[in-house]
């Protein structure tokens, strides 16, 4: 099994546990590090790896510090009111469908508010998203676009069951590509080329290092200048940090309950 095809849970790479501290384990650790270090992905950043970046624990504070917001910026109180209504609506949706994916695969509460606020404030024309699952993140993006009065969401997944939370209302501004089993990179490249330039990209698909890096590089090529790359589960691999460092970008992070969400302007 290659690292790119690495074991995944909800699109998340499962970091290995560190066990055994004896001599043999130390040697095994070093050998493993040399082999896996080549491929990265097997190492996950620790909290201190984020210390050189701005890490927020409030979604609204992070949303307020976004550059490129259309003037006048939408008041936070309006965003919060709209979001509360949508959150209640989504809860009812969950009860009315049989979700194909566990609810903890979805972006978390603070992240949902951040994504909604960012789309409302930046008013993008085209948003690209990889990793749909039940459609939690897609729901907030699509409803923010609807309230903006313009914009479309282009989503990608590998499973045709993706998006069951979305009603015809949201699907009006939605295009979904299901990637084939083989030739996934080529299919994604073609899709992204066809929709360019995107204003915003949200990664929440396969969180192995190499796949993430492939998506970030692809997005960077096809985003408009000053566009945004966002990622859920930023703590699962070094890809987002390495990508930001490679291009001397200044990422910001939201510390949500279980996961870190990263945002960077390219
Ligand atoms: C963590 S879930 C996405 C959650 C979603 N963003 C939400 O907020 O509900 C990961 C999704 O990525 C999909 N996936 C896994 N590998 C993928 C790939 N290489 N390209 C696109 N989607 C992928 C899975 O089928 C799954 O639906």
Number of domains in the coordinates? 1
| Residue runs with pLDDT of under 50 for 5 or more positions | 1-22, 24-29
Strand-pairing-aware structural class: alpha/beta
CATH superfamily: Vaccinia Virus protein VP39
Oligomer: single chain
Which ligands accompany this protein? S-adenosylmethionine
Mean pLDDT: 87
Q: What proportion of the residues form beta strands (DSSP E)?
A: 15-25%
Q: Report strand order across the widest sheet.
A: 3-9-10-8-7-4-5-6
Q: Give a short account of the largest sheet.
A: 8 strands, mixed
Task: Output the helix-strand order.
Answer: EEHEHHHEHEHEHEHEHEE
CATH class: Alpha Beta
Count the DSSP helices: 9
Q: What is the percent of helical residues? A: 40-55%
Q: Compute the number of strand runs.
A: 10
Distance between the termini: 33 Å
The radius of gyration is: 19 Å
Shape: globular
The CATH architecture name reads 3-Layer(aba) Sandwich
What name is given to the CATH topology? Rossmann fold
